[in-house]
Specification:
Layout: E1 17-29, E2 32-40, E3 52-53, E4 56-58, H1 61-65, H2 75-82, H3 88-103, E5 108-109, H4 123-133, H5 140-147, E6 150-151, E7 157-163, E8 171-180, E9 194-200, H6 202-206, H7 216-225, H8 231-240, E10 246-247, E11 250-254, E12 257-261, H9 268-274, E13 292-295, E14 298-303, E15 315-322, E16 331-335, H10 342-351, E17 356-360, H11 372-379, E18 393-397, E19 400-406, E20 415-419, E21 424-426, H12 433-436, E22 448-450, E23 457-458
Parallel strand pairs: 1-8, 7-10, 16-17, 21-22
Antiparallel strand pairs: 1-2, 1-4, 2-3, 2-9, 5-6, 7-8, 11-12, 13-14, 14-15, 15-16, 18-19, 19-20, 20-21, 22-23
Helix pairs in contact: 2-3, 4-5
Length: about 475
């Protein structure tokens, strides 16, 4: 095996998810909408230390006790909004509680039902609230009972839902809320969970020149609210949202090391396929010459073609096969050998886990591929001499069968190959256009498309027609 293969570290036990809530507090500033940010205190082992975040944290047992002091929203309505069976109100209350604990703002109504003007309370009352909110205090429910307060959870609008990537030691299932800053209150960080705070416009926070450390969900939500001119406009937008989908980044390794990959990025689906547990060894970039394992029977090696095709990603060559240690069974096929480039040919030879016995192409004749004859000479592999029939099955090794499929471009010599055991179709193309006109395949037979450039793609609905009854 080549050194370009990377052994995957053993997957760590999956940690249990922690429910959490966070609150985007907005106000109108001189130049537009501003959002309250707190700086996380530095803590050993906390990858988010020093990050600027919205006030928030994990749900606590006291949030259930706060139900009796929630105003304007009950658990049934809150759970419906969040799409959970029960306990939705805990998220709203946790957002209110954490905002007060970390940033000193309390969304509440006084005993007369008026918005709480915290700055106008007597010092003894403010001290009671502060002491109750401390980690070793009596809790916010105690302060609400003493001062006759109701927590204004109905002032929070549900905005987004984020799940920490698999593979991290701590994973949070977090609901994001939006609220307009309460009047008569001054933000003040607690000095424990938060070491600082600021009010800034989203564009300022996102500007690389600011030097602020921001987590991916923070960046994403800041970008989402940056388009609003007024805090009220943003709040009304959030209040009108429904069917909010959960967003889960994944971990991928790129030029700068491990990073969070967003669902809209081209590599996202492939990362979920080859590294669902989040080991962090899967790549989020295409690197020529590096063998990438896509499945038990599939490796990809990309040639550097120097072109602008598909954004300069290079041309993919696939190794398909597998079996056991017996060379008679552990045989492999090359699909699309790639350019006549000695470095690429050597990378393919080095990546092969067993003997290469077949050389195939998504063109009608494998010999048309520039590197095919050199690979054939180096391996003694077969280049099919005649035309491969649609539906023909090629037994590559033990438990590895390729089904030949004639594509829409068959008149110009286009073929596809379906690896039946892994439901992966090697398309020889970059788009679904040629896949759409394939001779009928059972839709359930195809789960993934392996294109000539770029990453694996989930087979979209309608790309492969269902066989008629």
């Amino acid at each position: 095996m080549s050194q370009s293969h990377e052994s995957a570290p053993p997957a760590a036990p999956s940690p249990s998810l922690r429910n959490a809530a966070t609150l985007l507090v907005l106000r109108d500033g001189p130049l537009g909408i501003e959002v309250l940010m707190v700086r996380r205190a530095e803590r050993a082992g906390d990858r988010s230390s020093g990050s600027y975040v919205y006030p928030g944290g994990t749900l606590d047992a006291q949030d259930r006790r706060l139900h009796a002091y929630a105003d304007g929203l009950d658990d049934h309505a809150a759970s419906q909004r969040l799409g959970v069976d029960a306990g939705g109100l805990d998220f709203y209350l946790a957002a209110v509680r954490e905002c007060f604990e970390e940033a000193g703002l309390l969304f509440a109504r006084d005993s007369a039902g008026q918005p709480l003007a915290l700055d106008q309370l007597e010092e003894a009352q403010r001290a009671l609230l502060r002491d109750a909110a401390r980690h070793d205090g009596l809790g916010l429910a105690h302060a609400c009972a003493q001062l006759g307060l109701r927590l204004a959870v109905d002032r929070l609008a549900y905005f987004s839902h984020w799940l920490t990537p698999p593979g991290l030691p701590k994973r949070f299932d977090t609901r994001f809320f939006v609220a307009i800053a309460p009047t008569g209150q001054t933000a003040a960080h607690d000095g424990e969970e938060a070491s600082g705070h600021c009010w800034k416009r989203p564009a300022e926070l996102l500007d690389p020149a600011s030097g602020l450390k921001l987590e991916p969900p923070t960046r994403r939500t800041l970008a989402a609210i940056a388009r609003f001119g007024r805090a009220q406009d943003c709040y009304q937008h959030a209040a009108a949202l429904s069917g909010i989908a959960r967003i889960m980044p994944r971990l991928g390794r790129g030029e700068g090391g491990l990073r969070a990959v967003m669902p809209e990025e081209p590599c996202y689906a492939e990362l979920g396929h080859i590294d669902p547990e989040g080991r962090g060894d899967a790549r989020c970039i295409i690197e020529p010459g590096v063998a990438v394992r896509l499945g038990a029977r599939i490796w990809r090696i990309t040639a550097r073609d120097g072109s602008d095709v598909a954004g300069g990603l290079g041309t993919n060559t696939y190794l398909v096969g597998g079996g056991n240690d017996n060379d008679n069974d552990n045989t492999w096929a090359v699909i699309d050998p790639g350019p006549d480039d000695d470095a690429h040919i050597q990378a393919v030879l080095a990546a092969a886990p067993g003997p290469i016995r077949w050389i195939l192409s998504t063109r009608a004749h494998a010999g048309q591929a520039p590197a095919a004859r050199k690979l054939g000479a180096a391996t003694g592999a077969q280049l099919p001499g005649g035309e491969l029939r649609h539906g023909e099955r090629l037994p590559i090794g033990e438990g590895c069968t390729l089904r030949v499929c004639h594509g829409s471009g068959h008149a110009s010599g286009h073929l596809c190959y379906l690896l039946e055991e892994e439901r992966t179709l090697f398309t020889g193309s970059d788009t679904d256009a040629r896949i759409d006109s394939l001779a009928a395949l059972p839709r359930e037979d195809v789960a993934w498309l392996a294109p000539s450039h770029g990453f694996l793609v989930p087979c979209p609905a309608g790309a492969v027609r269902t066989l008629p009854a």
